[in-house]
Amino acid sequence: MDTTGDRPSFEERFDALAAISYKVAYRLVGERAEAEDLAQEAMARAYASWRKVAGYDEAWVIRVTTNLAIGRWRKHRRTVVSADASALAARGRHDDQRPGRGHLAGVAARQTDVAERLELMAALRSLPRRQREVVALRYLADMPEAAVVAALGCAPGTVKVHSHRGLAALRRQLGHLAPHVTTVDPEEQGRVRASG
Amino acid sequence: MFEHLDDPRPPALGADFRRAVVARGRRRRRHRRMAGAAGVTVASLLVGVGGVYGRIAWRADQIERVDVTGTGPVAAGEPMTVLVLGVDSEEEFLTVTDTIMLARIDPGAGTAGLLSLPRDLMVDAPDGSGPVTINSVVAGAGVEGLVSVVESQVGVPVDHVVQVGFDGFVSLIDDAGGIDVWVDTAVRDMRSGLFVDELGCVTLDGEEALALARSRSVEVLDAATGTWVRDPLSDLRRIETQRTAVVAMASALGEGGLDPMTLDQRVDWALDHLVVDAGLGRDELVRLGRAVAALDPSSVRSASLPVVPHPTDENRLAADPAAAPAVVAAFVEGGPLAPDGPEATAAPAAGPGADPRALPGGSIVEPC
Questions:
Q1: What angle do CA B195, A66, B35 make, to 5 degrees?
Q2: Which residues of A touch B11 (CB under 8 A)?
Q3: Are B274 and B162 in contact (CB under 8 A)?
Q4: Chain segment B86-111, per-residue pLDDT in tens
Q5: Contact B25 A43 (CB under 8 A)
Q6: I need a labelling partner for A115 at 20 to 30 A (CA). Which of A3, A107, B69, B234 fits?
Q7: Is residue B100 a contact partner of residue B116, using CB atoms and an 8 Å limit?
């Protein structure tokens, strides 16, 4: 991949990068102000180091956003990241006034979301750096595999391996909590079960 | 795969967002240049400590300063009244001030007082447009406006304005290895992820201290029913907690003494996290820093402006005409302020007909 040619300016890339940074941040923290702040910080860092960043800006911004989000949570040693979901949901019962979602299903979904974010963050944190990066690009930012390959500038096989291992690790940690995670790819799921 | 975690209505990240990004990015660049200068400092240290002082002085001049009419230098040794604003970001003076406190420092006597003003306190807008909450004054009338409002509330001239970003609060507390507080009921905040279920003397890191001091969604565990309840006195207790944390932060500032290397780090910190009024020059700033760092935290007197529900809007607050003047006078003259904690809760507001909201409430946590 040639990144030495015409590199886009920060201005040109701003909207796309800010949007993806916000998306990733929101998926992790689930709160608008906090997500905006994380996106702002990630973008400010990209701005300050643009010469270094340009060329693989998307991967860079997603990685920084993910790490910032995890970093903010990691500081809370006493957060309930490892508590089980039902206990968490019980604690969360008080937190159910999401506007427009006042019905019971909404309440339940909200509690599960909070729990899942906590677990997702913990799971991401436990992944090796490279796996975490691939998982963030592929599943948090929803980039197609080919785009991840291009963004990271490594071989397709490498991305596949990291993606597979990272996802398997996420399933092991999140499976009980988020059925959709385990139903993405039945074939792989079978393999994980067989091996675990 | 995580689509269900998406924001159903993502905000437009518009011009304000972009401005903030660029401002933060510039600050970051500037700071990196400063960090580059750090290598030079190490070299100069080998030559002599004088070099460090030179660099400290030079960098103290780089701290962000904004002109604020009505503020100005105070002669060395004289008591100084400083308006302390806590904000969410570190750019310029912000429009929404999360935390408003007055600090009065008497370097001669080595004493200090801290008076917090609840953000829902109703005040007359400086432009005469009627009553507004104190935390929205800066948006309409600028920091000057806030200075004049505070001066008329408290009746003492404000000499300087210092704004601290919350990140600064966090990093200073982390630098000091956290703050020790006494927790007698489990506390959580679902929004920030704060969760403390150890009781007794607990060390909080910067983020945790911030969550506790700042969040309006802190809940405490009601041991009787086993349920989490949002604290009805939330804002007032938050304020008590803030003062506990600010005093801890002030003492963190003094941690490690004032040898050149520590002073150097503090200037670094100030460069990153403070905005001050243009009248607060380098010498005075260093003097202020020294005075604060030299304080004995246990001797800092602190109180919240006594308040009652506002006559026209019970969700807002007004200064308590009966109790406020004495507290303000004590703050200005250096007399004893009502102590924090349960004793304070019990004593002043127990009179018949006292509104429960007028209770100071006490800090959720106490220093220990």
A1: 95
A2: 22, 32, 36
A3: yes
A4: 877 544 445 566 788 899 988 888 78
A5: yes
A6: B234
A7: yes
Specify the amino acid at residue A96.
Answer: D
- The C-alpha angle A32, A38, A40, rounded to 5 degrees, equals 100
The DSSP bridge partners found for residue B114 are: B103, B302
Question: Hey, what are B127's tokens?
Answer: 């432009």
Given an 8 Å threshold on Cβ–Cβ distance, is A76 in contact with B25? no
Q: Chain B partners of A53 at a C-beta cutoff of 8 Å?
A: none
Q: What is the DSSP string of B105-116?
A: EETTTTEEEEEE
The single-letter DSSP state of residue A144 is -
**Is the CB of A40 less than 8 angstroms away from the CB of B21?**
yes
H runs (alpha helix) in chain B: 15-47, 49-60, 137-154, 166-175, 206-214, 234-254, 260-273, 282-293, 324-333, 342-346
Length of chain B: 368
Amino acid letter at B276?
Answer: V
The pLDDT of residue B69 is 80
pLDDT tens, residue by residue, B222-244:
778 888 887 655 566 666 667 77
Start-to-end C-alpha separation, chain B:
46
Amino acid at A187: E
Which positions ≥6 away from A3 have C-beta within 8 Å?
Answer: A54, A55, A56, A153
| ipTM of the complex in this document | 0.70
Q: Which residues of B touch A9 (CB under 8 A)?
A: none
Cβ neighbours around B368 below 10 Å, total: 12
Determine how many CB atoms are found less than 10 A away from the CB of residue B224: 6
For residue B156, what are its two tokens?
């003492």
